[in-house]
Amino acid sequence: MPRRMMIAGNWKMHGQRSDLVFFEQLAPHAATAVAAGVDVLICPPATLLAPVAERCANAAIFVGAQDCHAHSSGAHTGDVSAAMVRDAGAEYVILGHSERRADHGETSTLVRSKAQSALAAGLIPIICVGETREQREAGEAFDIVGAQLSASLPADAAVLVIAYEPVWAIGTGLTASPSDVAQMHAHIRTQLPDPAGTRVIYGGSVKPGNAGELMALDDVDGALVGGASLDVDPFAAIITAAIHGCAVR
Ligand code: PEP
């Protein structure tokens, strides 16, 4: 059975209750997508998880968090556990995003602990990996991503999603070339316990203008979208590109 595609929006530190009309506008696009084999996911900030999950309860829109703590509870001021994220109504959680690796010093070992905690709470982890510009220019991209993967993947993950996000392409307007993306996704797949069943999505300045060629690649199962997920029109255009990509797989 072909893998379903996924278009995931990462709202980062954007969004308030006044922005929730977004979901009414997105719902018809998501309904079309789900029928065509493309899942639509929005990862709002933690403050919006519960209201977004309530809005999406009857819509074909999945909800995810942008992080969770590795422990299930305890003295961790300001943190949110996987169980709390699940309790708020989320089904997915982004882990190891390069902004968390850079801003909070998150290591792949910590990402693996968080992924185990997420799985135990019934969440599907979206594990982010990707090389910096310096690492790519030094010819180290495959080794770096391989090392991140082997250290981040939980031992017995039945279901997870991998997001290949070259750090130099996130929020910069630069995108990896389709051939670089295809090669890296094929490389990632060789290291997965379930290569045929695991979704490997691409992130890094995905926009309506480049989504068509990226979503048409065999090994690309969708996109993790930052900036272009904040407005319905560009996000819906990326969803449409994935629907077209899905149809030719
Ligand atoms: C991201 O947030 O993971 C991302 C890829 O952002 P952008 O699409 O803005 O580059």
- What CATH architecture do you see? Alpha-Beta Barrel
The quaternary organization reads as: single chain
Mean pLDDT: 96
Radius of gyration: 17 Å
Put simply, the count of helices is 10
Tell me the span between the first and last alpha carbons.
11 Å
Report low-confidence residues grouped into runs of 5 or more. none
Instruction: Tell me the major beta sheet.
Output: 8 strands, parallel, barrel
Keywords:
alpha/beta; TIM Barrel; binds phosphoenolpyruvate; 249 residues; eight-stranded parallel β-barrel
How would you explain this protein's 3D organization?
It is a single chain. The protein is an alpha/beta fold and 249 residues long. It has a single domain (5-247), classed as Aldolase class I (TIM Barrel, Alpha-Beta Barrel), CATH 3.20.20.70. 41% of the residues lie in helices and 16% in strands. It contains ten helices and eight strands. The chain has helices at residues 21-35, 49-56, 82-87, 98-103, 108-120, 133-137, 141-152, 178-190, 208-215, 232-247; strands spanning 5-10, 38-43, 61-65, 92-95, 124-129, 161-164, 199-203, 222-225. Strands 1-2-3-4-5-6-7-8 form an eight-stranded parallel barrel, surrounded by seven helices. Helix 1 runs parallel beside helix 10, helix 5 packs across helix 7 (141-152) and helix 9 runs parallel beside helix 10 (232-247). Bound molecules: phosphoenolpyruvate. Phosphoenolpyruvate is lined by residues 10, 12, 165, 170-171, 203-206, 224-228. The site of phosphoenolpyruvate has 14 residues, from strand 8.
